[in-house]
Design goal:
Elements: H1 3-7, E1 15-16, E2 25-27, H2 35-50, E3 54-58, H3 64-78, H4 82-86, E4 97-100, E5 112-119, H5 121-124, H6 135-160, H7 169-173, E6 176-184, E7 194-199, E8 205-210, E9 215-219, E10 224-227, E11 235-239, H8 241-246, E12 256-259, E13 266-274, H9 301-310, H10 319-323
Parallel strand pairs: 1-10, 2-3
Antiparallel strand pairs: 3-11, 4-5, 5-6, 6-13, 7-12, 8-11, 8-13, 9-10, 9-12
Helix pairs in contact: 2-6, 3-6
Bound molecules: N-oxalylglycine and nickel (II) ion.
N-oxalylglycine (OGA) is lined by residues 180, 182, 196, 201, 208, 210, 214-215, 256, 258, 268, 270.
Length: 325
C-alpha cells in the first residue's frame, strides 16, 4: 500500500470507471508447455504480482460448467428461507461454517455471506449446508479445482520470487482454504452502493469467481479505485497479506472492495489460500539481508482470527499493519 492510501481514507479515493487495458491476463495453459514458455509465464505472473498485485487467469482448467454450478449452488442457498440460513449464524469466527448478513464485522455494508473451510474437503464438507441438495456436490467440485489452481499459481509465484517452486511445498499442500460465498443485492434495493468495504485478504492469494461486475481494487500507482472487468471464463487473482509477509514486501497485498451492481444481484465466491491454522508465516529468510531486513512479524491464520475477534467493532482491523516492524 502506498503512503497516500494509508493516510487518505479509502472511501474517499476517487474512482475511475474501468480498468484501462491492458489488464494483465495470464494464459495458464502455457505453464505446462516447454520450459522457455513456462519461464515467460512465470515472469508475467511475478511482474503482475510485484506491480499491480492482481491479474486474471484464462485457460485455467476449470470448466465453465463447474464455475456456473458453484454460482448456482451459492445463489440457491441465499434464496432459502431465513430460518434455513440462520442455522449457520454465529459470532464465533472459528466455526467451520458461518452465515451472516449484518455489518457486525464492520466491513459487510450490504452483503450476506456464507464462509466455510474447504481443505481438506473430506474433513469439512460434513459441516456444509445440506440445502440446497446440490450444494455440497457443486461447491465441493469447484473448491477442489480452485485449490489445484491456487497451488499451481503459488508455485509460479514462488518461482518468480526466486525461491523455487518446491519452496515450503509441504506447508502449502497442508494449507487451509477458506471459501467466502457472497451475495449482494441489486444497487437500487439499498441506500448504499457499497457491498463490502475496503479490506485486504489475510492469505497468500485469493481467487475470485463472480457472476457480474462489482469488484474494485486500489490501483497503487494512481491511488484510485479501478473497477475490475469481468472477462468471459476468467478468474480474478489477487495477493493477500501473508504473501506480502512471505515475500518481505516484494509483493504487496491488494486493497479491494465490492460495489453493488445496478443491474442485478451479484454472487461472488472468494477462495482464500493460506497455511494451516497454526502454521506461522515469516518473511522468507532468502529474501532477508542487510539491505532488506525483515519487515513483518511472524503470524498464523489463527493469529489473524484473534486479531479480527479483538477488533470486531472498531476500525483497527488492518491485520498487516499490526505485523509491521
Ligand atoms: C471477499 C471479497 C469481493 C467480491 O470475500 O473477501 O473481497 O467481489 N469479495 O465479492
Ligand atoms: Ni476480500
Amino acid at each position: 500500500m502506498s503512503d497516500l492510501s494509508r493516510t487518505v481514507p479509502q472511501e474517499q479515493l476517487p474512482s475511475e470507471d474501468l480498468h484501462p487495458l491492458p489488464m494483465p491476463v495470464i494464459n495458464l495453459g502455457h505453464l505446462s508447455l516447454d520450459s522457455a514458455t513456462r519461464s515467460r509465464v512465470v515472469n508475467d505472473i511475478a511482474k503482475a504480482c510485484r506491480g499491480l498485485g492482481y491479474f486474471q487467469v484464462i485457460n485455467h482448467g476449470i470448466s465453465q460448467s463447474v464455475m456456473d454450478c458453484a454460482v448456482k449452488a451459492a445463489s440457491d442457498f441465499f434464496e432459502l428461507p431465513n430460518e434455513a440460513k440462520e442455522e449457520f449464524s454465529s459470532e464465533d469466527l472459528r466455526q467451520p461454517v458461518r452465515y451472516d448478513t449484518s455489518s457486525k464485522d464492520s466491513i459487510s455494508m450490504s452483503r450476506a455471506f456464507l464462509k466455510h473451510y474447504a481443505h481438506p474437503l473430506s474433513d469439512w464438507i460434513q459441516y456444509w449446508p445440506q440445502k440446497p441438495p446440490i450444494y455440497r456436490e457443486y461447491m465441493g467440485k469447484y473448491a477442489a479445482e480452485v485449490r489445484r489452481l491456487a497451488l499451481q499459481l503459488m508455485e509460479a509465484m514462488l518461482e518468480g520470487l526466486g525461491l523455487g517452486k518446491e519452496y515450503l511445498d509441504e506447508k502449502f499442500q497442508e494449507g487451509s482454504q477458506l471459501l467466502s460465498v457472497n451475495c449482494y443485492p441489486k444497487a437500487s434495493q439499498c441506500d448504499t452502493t457499497i457491498g463490502l468495504a475496503p479490506h485486504s485478504d489475510y492469505g497468500f492469494l485469493t481467487i475470485l469467481l463472480t457472476s457480474c461486475r462489482g469488484l474494485e481494487v486500489v490501483d497503487r500507482s494512481s491511488n484510485i479505485w479501478k473497477t475490475v472487468q469481468q472477462l468471459p471464463h476468467a478468474l480474478h487473482v489477487h495477493i493477500g497479506d501473508h504473501m506480502e509477509v512471505l515475500s518481505n514486501g516484494r509483493m504487496k497485498t491488494v486493497v479491494h472492495r465490492a460495489l453493488l451492481n445496478p443491474e442485478e444481484a451479484r454472487i461472488s465466491i472468494a477462495s482464500i489460500h493460506g497455511f494451516a491454522l497454526h502454521e506461522k508465516v515469516t518473511c522468507a529468510k532468502e529474501l532477508v539481508d542487510e539491505e532488506n531486513p525483515p519487515k513483518y512479524k511472524e503470524s498464523s491464520f489463527s493469529d489473524f482470527l484473534d486479531h479480527l475477534t479483538a477488533n470486531m467493532d472498531n476500525k483497527h482491523r488492518n491485520f498487516l499493519d499490526s505485523l509491521r516492524m
